[in-house]
Amino acid sequence: MTPKSQWGWVRALLHSVYDQPDADSVNAQFDRVLEGLYEKLPQVAEHLELARADILAFTVFPKEIWRQIWSNNPNERLNREIRRRTDVVGIFPNRDAVIRLVGAVLAEQHDEWAEQRRYLGLEALKNARAVLTARTTEDRHEEVNSGLITSAVTA
Predict the structure, then answer these.
(1) What's the rounded Cα separation, in Å, for the pair 90 and 83?
(2) pLDDT classification of 29: cutoffs 50, 70, 90
(3) How is residue 51 annotated by DSSP?
(4) What is the distance between the alpha carbons of residues 39 and 106, in angstroms, rounded to a whole number?
(5) pTM to 2 decimal places
(6) How far apart are CA 31 and CA 112, in angstroms?
(7) Residues with Cβ < 8 Å from 85, sequence gap 6 or more?
(8) Which is higher by pLDDT, 5 or 100?
(9) How many Cβ atoms sit within 10 Å of the Cβ of residue 10?
(10) Helix (H, G, I), strand (E, B), or coil: what is residue 71?
(11) How many CB atoms are located within 10 Å of the residue 73 CB?
(12) How many angstroms separate the Cα of 89 from the Cα of each of 39, 75, 96, 97, 127?
């Protein structure tokens, strides 16, 4: 989709979206990025427009955890470790052996995250849950209110 010679500036444009201070700025910058891409790379712009909800999903959470949410580095690190361990073994006698090894790696990673370091602090998780709960409650109130308005208009 994107010519290799243009990867650098497209990546820079996309990173500018993540450098914004709040959700409104993120959305505005994403719109500016799309405008710029529609002129030079319309297919890339269309692809990003279709993926907008997924790309900007982090903005519904509190700002302090955005960095952890938009990055998939921990998943990539875990996948590399699984690949490294399976490469060491080479050939597995059966599927159950692979499942046992990968399960052991996942259990080890879980223990490391639970005991040694927290990727997301408990306070940040508590705040994120509170924000999501408040938004869900607001959405329900809006649905109820719009339902009441619709039923009043049709009656």
Answers:
(1) 10
(2) very high
(3) T
(4) 45
(5) 0.59
(6) 40
(7) 101, 105
(8) 100
(9) 19
(10) coil
(11) 9
(12) 50, 22, 14, 10, 43
* Residue tagged 């409104």 (tokens): 24
Q: How confident is the model at residue 31 (pLDDT cuts 50, 70, 90)?
A: very high
Query: Measured between alpha carbons, how far is 19 from 152 in angstroms, rounded to an integer?
Result: 45
- Give the Cα separation of 67 and 93 in Å (integer): 41
Eight-class DSSP state of 111:
H
Token readout for 154 is 């049709």
Q: Tokens in use for 85? A: 């361990």
As a whole number of Å, the end-to-end CA separation of the chain is: 52
Tokens encoding 84: 């490294």
**Quick one: tokens of 95?**
């599927």
Angle at Cα 101 formed by Cα 95 and Cα 107, nearest 5°?
Answer: 130
Burial 30-61 (b: 16+ CB within 10 A, else e): beebbeebeeebeebbeebeeeeeebbebbeb
